[in-house]
Sequence to fold (244 residues):
Amino acid sequence: MTIDAVYDPGTAVHDASRTRSGHPVFVVAHGFTGAVDRPHVRRVAQAFARYGAVVTFSFRGHGASGGRSTVGDREVLDLAAAVRWAREFGHARVGTVGFSMGGSVVLRHAALHPRETDAVVSVSAPARWYYRGTAPMRRLHWLVTRPEGRIVGRYGFGTRIHHRDWDPVPLSPVEAVPRIAPTPLLIVHGEADGYFPLDHPRMLAAAAGDQGELWLEPGMGHAEHAAGDALLARIGEWVAGRAG
Fold:
């Protein structure tokens, strides 16, 4: 199976005082129905390119990547492959930044593949699986679990979704978080998120304890679309400071 990916050396690599090995690379994990060529993913990549190199990629079943989406389960393998690819460009330090589904993936990747990443940022992620407490999440579950929903996903959103249920159920994000330490962890969530209410980021932060930071962003909605330029700049500075 192939994973579609793009490498951007970033603007800081042109600073003659720094070698590429000392230049961090951001690996961006998009949300469900995203892809490497989507405008909101490109905007995120451009923002982070001011602070380091950037690798963006499409998860399985999304965009030009092969396979079918497992909605956060086997996507951990896709992120692991992207991180390894990023290091092949000579970067000694890697920061992973995930949004929504990608936010849950970066947490599980850091827990299941220790020492592969040097800083982790999870934006708009769920804390637990099978959450249906909001209308957007009920629509998403219909999209994933119903044959007619998967047809809409394929032709309406360009996302090919696997028909099988999880077996076994993967480690949940809140179960993964305690295993991430001592890797620096940042949890970001919008106070106006329509998918996951604030008990999700608070559960994640509680599980992280002193090893994590929590930013609750006033007025922010959900994931990449809602992350403004100022927030992306703050995230870029945070990753560069921890993984740079």
In short: Strands lie at 5-8, 25-29, 53-57, 94-99, 119-123, 185-190, 212-217. The mean pLDDT is 94. Residues 149 and 155 are 10 Å apart (CA to CA).
